[in-house]
Amino acid sequence: MELTITQPDDWHLHLRDSDLLHAVAPHSASTFRRAIVMPNLKPPITTTAAAIAYRESILKALPSGSSFDPLMTLYLTDTTSPSEIKLARQSGVVYGVKLYPAGATTNSQDGVTDLFGKCLSVLEEMVRQNMPLLVHGEVTDPDVDIFDREKVFIETVLEPLIQQLPQLKIVMEHITTMDAVKFVESCKEGFVAATVTPQHLLLNRNSLFQGGLQPHNYCLPVLKREMHREAIVQAVTSGSKKFFLGTDSAPHERRRKESSNGCAGIYSSPIALSLYAKVFEEEGALDKLEAFTSFNGPDFYGVPRNSSKVTLKRDPWKVPELFSFSFGEIVPLFAGRTLQWQVVSD
Ligand code: DOR
Ligand code: ZN
Q1: 264 lines ligand 1 (CB under 6 A)
Q2: 251 Cβ closer than 6 Å to some ligand 1 atom
Q3: Is 178 in a helix, a strand, or coil?
Q4: Is 14 a catalytic residue?
Q5: Which residues contact 49 (CB under 8 A, 6 or more apart)?
Q6: Alpha helix locations (H) across 63-144?
Q7: For 8-307, CATH number?
Q8: Residues 170-212: tens digit of each pLDDT
């Protein structure tokens, strides 16, 4: 059986820089036409000038002839200025501004400490420029249980934010809870949407501990209970336009994952489309796959849908145990497991 769909975009991707960028960019480019590229490099991409330079280095890392189009983002800090948002809009290459609460995740130490106190004028300029805010939705208070941090963020940040700035476009990135599903469903279409990763559709928190500690299933926000996974699966297969594909593919070298203080981040870009197809097939909703992978994202961001196609074939294949590079190895999600759907052409 074959399934031909409009080529997907990845609305949440970490491409890194240097060796890692060269290693992973071709994987994304072989499936996706565009991607929203996260700015959490060291140092972070806080200016339009840095975003333009980063975009150039991504283009150089692509295979020749690739038509992959990186859509850039800025990293919001306490000192980002409204004029930087104007520059970002004028550049034509910046598509969103990423909010990392300071300390929430990898390279978030320069993130925002007080959104309402420090960033209000920037958020108002984003409304004027129709620039989406892309949100890592977790509070950072160490006294809040790590499994509750998304829910508390919705209550203490997102709900007040949409009250105060109802015209701000917001993408709640990589949602992990039933609470996030309900929140996004309750908001106005076209203003609030969410990206969904393959791991949060396929795994629950048991996967972190099954047969011993599983560092390659560790990401942030961390996997949650089964009932949350089920709610997210229901949301994406419902046909709602508010949910779209964002892999949050976040490569780290194997030795940095398999260590004490192992990094958060799951590498999924080479297998992500097969995994999403698995989810939709298991729900009997393959007819809804294309809207999730290829329509809802561009419609929300206000960019044209792709005209290119990809074909998925139902033909079992084994996910590689790892990808080897001169600098080290990267272990993908579902390493060594058999999947039914494979991407065969574009
Ligand atoms: O697991 C994660 N990894 N979550 C994030 O928010 C950041 C990402 C990374 O950059 O590695
Ligand atoms: Zn991410």
Answers
A1: yes
A2: no
A3: helix
A4: yes
A5: none
A6: 82-91, 115-118, 120-129
A7: 3.20.20.140
A8: 999 999 999 999 999 999 999 999 999 999 999 999 999 999 9
Mean pLDDT of 132-154: 98
For ligand 1, atom 10: residue with the closest CA = 106
C-alpha neighbours within 13 Å on the C-beta side of residue 101: 22
Evaluate whether 28 touches 264 at the Cβ level (below 8 Å). no
Residue 257's pLDDT band, with cuts at 50, 70 and 90, is very high
Tokens of 19: 């060796």
Residue type, 97: V
pLDDT, tens only, 223-244: 999 999 999 999 999 999 999 9
Say whether 228 sits in a helix, a strand or coil. helix
Closest residue by Cα to residue 43 from 10, 77, 13, 72:
77
DSSP-derived 3-state class of residue 19:
helix
CB 195 within 8 A of CB 246: yes
The residue with tokens 């060269």 is 22
Does any ligand 1 atom lie closer than 6 A to the CB of residue 14? yes
Q: Are 266 and 272 in contact (CB under 8 A)?
A: no
For the chain, the structural domain boundaries read 8-307
What are the tokens at 185?
A: 């469903």
Backbone phi, then psi, for 73, in 5-degree steps?
A: -135, 155
105 burial level (CB within 10 Å; 0-12, 13-18, 19+) = buried
Nearest by Cα to 23 from 253, 343, 256: 253
- Catalytic residue, chosen from 10, 14, 110, 257, is 14
Contact 105, 99 (CB under 8 A): no
Q: Check: CB of residue 132 under 8 Å from CB of residue 99.
A: no
Q: Give CA–CA dist 264/146, Å, rounded.
A: 13
